[in-house]
């Protein structure tokens, strides 16, 4: 458990550092301690009661801890926010501040003040028939332009973005999003990639442009992950101390290694290729190798890409978000079917479950139960478990990865999807509800408890796209709802009545 606490702590610090360090003066370490309160509560409960504690009491304790942690976290973030310059700005209804527009996934820079001539030019960028500008609010990192939208959001954004580019070149990124009062506003933030900006200097040296394309590093991490996953495959069902003594023993782990890396690679390639299609600056996919051990025997923490420029609109946000899980899911199904067909039915044990691959319980997932029926037919009985083939283990991990990424929370793929479908504020509300539902489900599906805890450590608010007002089309809405249904098929257990019918 110490390993998982350390892992949660590292992930939480990274999340806090990345998401709020640039919008509040509150120390990151203090925000981290507040975010870790539920994890510390959980660990304290386990130390005090072991496995004999009452689940309902634990649920109440964690729920209270989450409420206190979330409230205190929000208060500390707001307390440390810099005060905006509201001279000449109209107060917002209810005294609520508008959300700051997001900037690219790079260090924030302070906005250079505008003179009167530049402000007059800015006002001319907003035709009254497109967006009737009412006031301009100066903030440390953005100019907030509020008014009344008088045409379609797509037309308004395109017109004003072109006007601002004509007057100010590439000095600004133009963000269009809804305020807390439901009215859309424009925000101008400094463009880190502006060619007209003076180069940054540090210690007398000109800063070098960031290098996104690093094939040597990506290839080295891929080969290292191939080695660790091959070793993990060779050790499946064995003690981690029983290292392969020759190449033949190591070679036995290749089926698992190739299967899991194909799934991860196709998932991240879906994100990468879609991001490139929308001209979003992004890194190559990087695999994360980890030596197999008892506490984490899989040989990899997954793969990732980093997007280094803002997403242009909600359609692009949706397409980039959904491309990875769908591509990975399509790759997973044939791999999982083949692996299940070569797995061995065994009597179910007391510890049979979704992540016990030596005594795997197909009924723990509705989708896996259906696929097990397709792969094994009458060979598998309703009350039996499976000793999974290594390829089946890779396939099951592929489904788990798909499900985890489709969780509609924050900056996960599912969070991007619901943000694109319903808007930033509604997407954040869906994320809050989803975290509570997953926590409740984790008391039925014990394997989900750690992930439920991690979800509560993630911010539910996703960064807006540049044009965050224009809605999706019906085809994308239908596809998004279908992926949420897929998530339910993976994480919900199969009803006993259905298992009796299937087997």
Verbal overview:
This protein has 3 domains: 2-79; 100-193, Gyrase A, domain 2 (2-Layer Sandwich); 215-502, no CATH class. Helix content is 51%, strand content 10%. It is built from 17 helices and 10 strands. Strands 1-2-4-3 form a 4-stranded antiparallel β-sheet, covered by helices on one side. Strand 3 and strand 4 form a beta hairpin. Helix 1 (2-19) packs across helix 2, helix 3 (37-49) packs antiparallel against helix 4 (55-79) and helix 14 runs antiparallel to helix 15 (449-456). The chain is globular. Mean pLDDT is 83; it is low at 85-107 and 201-207.
Layout of helices and strands:
Blueprint: H1 2-19, H2 28-35, H3 37-49, H4 55-79, H5 116-124, E1 131-139, E2 142-149, H6 153-168, E3 172-178, E4 184-190, E5 201-202, E6 205-206, H7 215-234, H8 247-251, H9 254-277, E7 286-289, E8 300-304, H10 314-341, E9 344-347, H11 366-376, E10 384-387, H12 390-406, H13 413-422, H14 424-441, H15 449-456, H16 474-491, H17 496-502
Antiparallel strand pairs: 1-2, 2-4, 3-4, 5-6, 7-8, 9-10
In short:
This protein is an alpha+beta fold. Helices cover 51% and strands 10% of the residues.
What integer value in Å does the Rg equal?
A: 25 Å
Class per helix and strand makeup: alpha+beta
Distance between the termini: 37 Å
Count of domains: 3
Q: Give the percentage of residues in beta strands.
A: 5-15%
Largest sheet: 4 strands, antiparallel
How are strands sequenced across the largest beta sheet?
A: 1-2-4-3
The portion of residues assigned to helices is 40-55%
């Amino acid at each position: 458990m110490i390993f998982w606490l350390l892992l949660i702590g590292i992930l939480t610090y990274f999340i806090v550092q990345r998401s709020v360090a640039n919008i509040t003066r509150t120390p990151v370490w203090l925000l981290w301690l507040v975010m870790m309160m539920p994890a510390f509560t959980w660990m304290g409960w386990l130390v005090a009661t072991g496995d004999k504690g009452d689940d309902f009491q634990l649920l109440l304790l964690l729920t209270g801890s989450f409420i206190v942690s979330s409230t205190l976290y929000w208060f500390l973030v707001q307390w440390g926010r810099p005060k905006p310059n509201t001279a000449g700005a109209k107060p917002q209804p209810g005294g609520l501040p508008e959300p700051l527009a997001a900037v690219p996934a790079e260090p924030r820079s302070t906005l250079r003040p505008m003179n009167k001539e530049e402000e007059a030019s800015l006002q001319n960028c907003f035709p009254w028939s497109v967006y009737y500008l009412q006031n301009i609010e100066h903030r440390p990192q953005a100019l907030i332009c509020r008014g009344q939208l008088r045409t379609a959001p797509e037309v308004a954004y395109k017109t004003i973005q072109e006007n601002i580019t004509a007057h100010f070149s590439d000095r600004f990124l133009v963000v269009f999003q809804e305020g807390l009062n439901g009215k859309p506003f424009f925000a101008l933030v400094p463009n880190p990639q502006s060619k007209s900006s003076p180069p940054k200097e540090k210690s007398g040296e000109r800063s070098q442009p960031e290098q996104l394309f690093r094939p040597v590093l990506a290839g080295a991490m891929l080969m290292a992950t191939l080695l660790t996953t091959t070793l993990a495959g060779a050790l499946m069902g064995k003690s981690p101390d029983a290292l392969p003594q020759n190449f033949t023993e190591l070679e036995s782990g290749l089926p698992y290694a190739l299967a899991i890396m194909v799934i991860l690679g196709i998932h991240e390639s879906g994100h990468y290729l879609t991001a490139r299609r929308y001209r979003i600056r992004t890194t190559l996919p990087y695999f994360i190798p980890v030596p197999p051990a008892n506490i984490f025997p899989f040989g990899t923490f997954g793969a990732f890409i980093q997007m280094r420029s803002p997403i242009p609109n909600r359609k692009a946000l949706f397409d980039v978000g959904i491309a990875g899980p769908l591509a990975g899911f399509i790759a997973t199904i044939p791999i999982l079917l083949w692996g299940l067909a070569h797995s061995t039915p065994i009597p179910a044990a007391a510890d049979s479950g979704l992540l016990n691959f030596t005594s795997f319980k197909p009924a723990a997932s509705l989708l896996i139960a259906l696929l097990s029926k397709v792969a094994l037919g009458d060979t598998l009985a309703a009350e039996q478990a499976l000793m999974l083939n290594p390829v089946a283990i890779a396939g099951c991990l592929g489904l788990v990865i798909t499900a985890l990424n489709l969780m509609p929370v924050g900056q996960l793929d599912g969070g991007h999807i619901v943000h694109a479908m319903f808007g930033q504020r509604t997407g954040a509300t869906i994320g809050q509800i989803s975290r509570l539902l997953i926590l409740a489900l984790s008391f039925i599906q014990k394997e989900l408890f750690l992930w439920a805890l991690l979800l509560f450590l993630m911010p539910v608010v996703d960064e807006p796209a540049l044009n965050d007002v224009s809605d999706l089309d019906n085809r994308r809405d239908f596809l998004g709802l279908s992926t949420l249904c897929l998530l339910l098929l993976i994480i919900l257990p199969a009803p006993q009545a259905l298992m009796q019918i299937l087997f």
